[in-house]
Amino acid sequence: MESTETNCTAESRPLYVFYSVVMIVEFVLALPLNLTVIYLFIFKLKFWKTNTNNIFLFNLVLADILLLICLPVKAYQFAIGERRSPNDVVCKAMLFMLFLNRGASIAFLSVISIDRYLNVVHPGKKNFLKILKKSPLISLLIWLLLLPLTIPTMLRTFECCNSFGREGDELATDIFRESVFFTQILVPFIVLVFCTVQIVNRLKKKTVGDRTKLRRAVFLVTSVMLVFSLCFLPCTISRMVLLVVRFNENHKAEEYAVQVYDGLMCLSYLDCLLDPLVYCLSSTKFKSLYLEHYLPFLIGKDGQPNDSSHSTGNSSNPAHLNNAQRERQMETMKTLTTQGDPCTS
Predict the structure, then answer these.
(1) What are the phi and psi torsion angles at 305 (to 5°)?
(2) pTM of the prediction?
(3) Same structural domain for residues 244 and 271?
C-alpha cells in the first residue's frame, strides 16, 4: 500500500501548477460576480420578503460563495505539488466544505428547474413545491439534509482523504461516500433532462398565447442541463474510470487517471462563475437591476442595453433624456423590489 505522502504528492508538478492557476482565475472572476449578485438579493430585492424563487436563488449564490472560499486553499496545495493537504484536519475540512456546498448548489439548481417545470407543464395544479417555497424553511431543510450525506468525509483518516479500495476494513464507509458522490450528480441530471424535455414539448404544443415566458423557461432549464454536462459529468466519468483502474491495481494507469480527475474537478468549480450569469442574469428584470447598479453606461435612453438601433433624433436634448432615464430607472427599481421571481420574466 502506498504511503500517504506518496499518494498526496502530485506526480506532474507543472500540470498541477497549471491547475492552481485555473482555480485562481476562477476565484478572481467568480467571487466579485457572486458578491455583487448577493448584494442585490439582500439590499435591493429583499429576497426574504418574496414568496418566489428569490430565496432559492439566494441560497444558490450563497453555496457558490462558500465553495469559492475553498479554492485558494486547493490552489495553494496544487502549486506546492500536493494533491491534498497532509494536515488531516485541513484535508477533511476541505472535503466537507466541497461536498456540502457543491451538493447545495446542485440541489438548489434542481429545485429551481423542478419548480419551473411544475409552473409551465402543470400551471393550474397546486403542488407541494409551491407551498413549501413560500417559506424559507425549505432552504434550511435542504442544507440540513445535505449534512448527513457529507458526514462520511469526517469519519476517519482517509489516505490522502481518498482511500477507496485501499482500506478493506473501512470499505462500507468508502462505498457510502462514493455513492453520495455519484448520486448527487447523476440523479439531478436525469431530473433536469426530464424537466427540459417536458418544457420543450409544452412549448411546441402551445399554438396561442404568450410564448415568451415558455421560451425563457426552456432557456433556463436547458442552461442548467448544459452547465451540468460541462461542469459535473466529466469529473463523474473520470471518477468512475479512476475507481476501475484502482481496483485493477494498475498503478501506472492510476497515476494518469488521478491527474485527469483532479483537472476535471477544477473544471467543475467553473459552475460558481456560470451560475450567476446563466440563472440570474438571464432574467430581464435582474439583468436591468444589475446593469443599473454596476454598469449604468450600458443602459440606453430607452432603458435597454445600449445598441446602435436604439439611437433616435432626440439625442440632441441630453438633459431631457437623462431625466426620463432616471424616471424609468426609479420605476424599474420599484417594480423589482415589489415583484416576485426575477427569473419568471
Answers:
(1) -55, 145
(2) 0.79
(3) yes
